[in-house]
Amino acid sequence: MKAESKEFVVLVDREDREVGLMEKMEAHRQGVLHRAFSVFLFNDKGELLLHQRAYTKYHSAGLWTNTCCSHPRAGEKLEDAVNRRLQEEMGIQCNTQRRFSFIYQADLEHDLIEHELDHVYIGFFNDTPKPDSDEVNAWKYLSIEDIRKDLEENPEQYTAWFRIVFEQAVVQYKAMETLRKAS
């Protein structure tokens, strides 16, 4: 388990109103609701860019998940945080659009609890990412159907939040793709 530097998460209520700050590891030990985001980038073939979390991550190490996920810093706009972490984690610059939010709670290894109000962003990207090896072990583009099949056969190889949100993200991606093709 990688030792993380002291980072803080923004604590929120169920309506996403800020109620304070807490050190990130403590928030995950206590399971306190905090703000997060997840990014799903699709290419022109309709494939999702997945990444495998680095084996040194403090939770969900080595599991496959969506393109990028993280927490905004205190006072940081969500869009700025999304752009910052896409660049830091995956070496990617691209436009994304916030599509929906959801709250989930999941027990993780090392007695940690993920309890997040997660804002989901979707975008389009066709290039090769340049991931940070401290964040990402591997990456791949995979079709929606291949992901569905693998989630059914090997759910333990994916992060808790990805298993929860994947189908809703696909619905939103398809709506965006329809609008994109119409314009």
Topology:
Blueprint lengths: L7 E5 L5 E6 H7 L3 E9 L4 E7 L10 E2 L2 E3 L7 H13 L5 E13 L3 E13 L11 E8 H10 L6 H23 L1
Parallel strand pairs: 3-8
Antiparallel strand pairs: 1-2, 3-6, 4-5, 4-9, 7-8
What structural keywords apply?
single chain, Nucleoside Triphosphate Pyrophosphohydrolase, alpha+beta, three-stranded antiparallel sheet, 29% helix
Explain this structure to me?
The protein is an alpha+beta fold. It has one domain (8-182): Nucleoside Triphosphate Pyrophosphohydrolase (Alpha-Beta Complex), CATH 3.90.79. The chain contains four helices and nine strands, in the order ββαββββαβββαα. The strands form three sheets. Strands 6-3-8-7 form a four-stranded mixed β-sheet, sandwiched between helices. A three-stranded antiparallel β-sheet has the order 5-4-9. A hairpin with a 5-residue loop joins strand 1 and strand 2. It is globular. The mean pLDDT is 94.
Outline of this structure?
With about 180 residues, the protein is of the alpha+beta class.
